[in-house]
Request: fold
Amino acid sequence: MNKVIKLFVAGGVALTLGTGIVAASAHEGSTGNKDADMRIAKMKELGAGMKAIAGFAKGEAGFSPALEEHAKRIVAISEEMKNLFPEGSGGPKTRSKEEIWAQPEAFAKAAENFESAAVKLYTAVMTKDQATIGAALGATGKTCGGCHKPFRTPEH
Reply:
């Protein structure tokens, strides 16, 4: 097996294992609401993808095809974001503030900002350039914070 194929297979295995871990950890911390549990699992997957890309951006890890897959999943989740918060899927175990549903236009704008940044991050990851990826990752992270501050309660 040549090196490229080995890297691709290793990346796919890591992504598959990571998805299983996300699903297992989502089950462990179940909120009792299937919509909220699915959303939390996707947010954990999103965080894992951002963390993997950050490892490369910080020079802690080399580039691998798995980063491209993480970037694709980040875009896919960003495209789903507005639909991940159906009415009735809040509650204290979810850390979702009522402002999500009380201020739908503001929440939709925050989700759109994240989606736009996620697409730019994907484009940056495809360049394989550490500085470009780091800048796009920082911008994407700011959109995460732009949603967390007004629409998510602090962790206790």
